[in-house]
Structures are given as structure tokens and as C-alpha cells.
Amino acid sequence: MELDVGDVGQAVSTGTLPGWDRVEELVAAAWHRNRDLRAGEVADYIPILAEVDPELFGVCVAEVDGGIHLAGDADHPFSIQSISKAFVYALVCDAVGHQVVLDRVGVDNTGLPFNSVMAVELNDGHPRNPMVNAGALATTALVPGATPAAKWTFIQDGLARFAGRPLPLDEQVYASEAATNQRNRAIARLLESYGRIDTDPLAVVDVYTRQCALLVSARDLAVMGATLADGGVNPVTGERVVAASVCQDTLAVLAASGLYERSGEWLYEIGVPGKSGVAGGIVTVAPGKAGIGTFSPRLDGAGNSVRGQRATAYLSRALGLNVFASDVRTPDGRSST
Ligand code: GLU
Fold this sequence. Notes:
Blueprint: H1 20-32, E1 58-63, E2 68-72, E3 78-79, H2 84-96, H3 98-104, H4 118-122, H5 133-140, H6 148-163, H7 171-178, H8 182-193, H9 201-212, E4 215-216, H10 218-229, H11 244-257, H12 263-269, E5 274-276, E6 281-286, E7 290-295, H13 306-319
Antiparallel strand pairs: 1-2, 1-7, 3-4, 5-6, 6-7
Helix pairs in contact: 1-13, 2-3, 2-6, 2-11, 5-8, 5-9, 6-9, 6-10, 8-9
Bound molecules: glutamic acid.
């Protein structure tokens, strides 16, 4: 992955963002310097996703004090797709507890593509990674609710609390994926055969397909990310959505697996937990500081937005978000940077 961030330098993770005007400037720069990039392809395995305007590009940073910085098409709606996995995971951990989700789903990257059946087979039916389809289906199966409708309400309400506004379902995206998701149905049946889903697997796939078809914008993703950065409290509405410990668990999982089989490369280059989706969104979470939402539909070979990765790399450097970058100060006042 080539992430040209220019000469912005490497700001260390300082504990706070720079001042308002500087963040405004950097969000605009993250957009400007990548807007002419055309690399990548839009997803087309869900037929309707291929109809998107590939030029759309939005960037948003939401600070943990509720401040919002926007550039480009930051309010353009698109389907959340796989990014829903991060927030449903948090809601399920909050509802059923850390250990249940750890035992049933796991927290490790499989190193295989998002829709891999082989990953399930190679691990004796253990999904391992909640950020790809098998693990996400096993997670959605754990959503509280006696009926699929109750589970769906739980998810739609929960994601709305993360975003601070109701998130509509894109009926066309839902219908397009529901007509073509034979592979996800096969994965759910396979998980059922291994005892990893103990409710109707096709009903689980239906709820999962709906959760992926919820409409968000880059601004929504930034606020949702900022809620995870803010110990589970939405910084815009002030509402507690999940416990602080759940944010910690979720961010650890995103660090390991948020960018499909390129998660290691993302963490190495960008140094903050994130989650991408095949409609072109990426949410990134800088704990204690901010959430970043980006939207640009052209994807790399793993399914990650090309411009979204570049814009986020730039912001991570310039805003000092990399959680591995430190400025050690010795007792005599010397600094390591
Ligand atoms: N709804 C998509 C699927 O299940 C999500 C894929 C993704 O964004 O990774 O195939």
C-alpha cells in the first residue's frame, strides 16, 4: 500500500488534538491532496453498489468534545456495509458480556478474505474474526431479542445511538444483497452445523443483510467513531451508548482485523484502529481524541477505500493519532523527538 502523505511530518500522540483551526486546515488538506486520485475499483459483487458515482469523496473528523470538521461529500449517504460489524459487535459485547463473545466468536484475524468459507473450515468451525462475515454472522446471532424483528430493532436503535440520529435502511441495497447473498447463507448454515449459530441461520443472514444496508455518511461514521473514542458516550448527544470497557474490547478487535487481510499493514502505516466497508466507508478511532469518517467508493484488492486510506494516513500523521508514536521525556527534560 503506497500512502504518500507528503511532508506533513510525524506528530506524536500527544493526548489532545491541535487547535480548532489547525484541525479544519488538515481535514481540508486531507481531502484536497487526494481528490484527484482515481486508483481502485468500486465493489460490484452486490449489483447495486456498482451504480455509485465513483468520484464521491468525503472526510470528517469528530472530536470527543463534539466538534465536527467536514470536507467534500461528508454528508452523502451510502450503505454502512461491513462497518456495521464494529458497532454491532460493541452492542453485543455490552449486552451479553465480554466472555460470551470471546468464546463464541473470537478476536483474531484469519488472514483470509471477508467472505471466506475456508477460514471457518480451517478453524474447526470457530469464526475467530468478528470483523469478517462468518464472525459477524455469529455475532449478529447473539443479538438480544426473541424474534428477528426484535433483533433488528435492537441493532437499528443501537446504531442510531452511536450516530446520534436515526439511520434509514436503503431498501434497494438490502434487496440487491438479499437476492445475491447465497454465500453468506452458506456460511451461516456452516456455522450452524458447528454449533456457532443456535438460532435460524437464514433469519440471522437477513438481519445481518439489513444491518449492512443502513445508510450513513462520513459525518455519521466520524460521530460513531468518536463515541468509541469517548469511552462509549456519544459526544454530540451526550448519551452513553456502551460501557467504556466495551470500547476497549472493540478497538482491540478493530486493530487486529478492521481492514480485512490488510489490517497489519494499516496498523503499521497508520497506527489507529479502523474498520472499512465495501461501499467505500472507513471509520477510524483515535482513543480519547476523535473519530474519523471517510467515504470514497473505489477500493483496493482487499476491499478498502483507496482515498479513504490515504486521507486517514495523512490525518493520523498530522494530528498525532498514531497510538504507537510517543515522545518520551526524561527526568532532565530531554525529549526523544
Ligand atoms: N454486506 C456485505 C457482505 O456481507 C459486507 C461486506 C463488507 O463490507 O466487507 O458481503
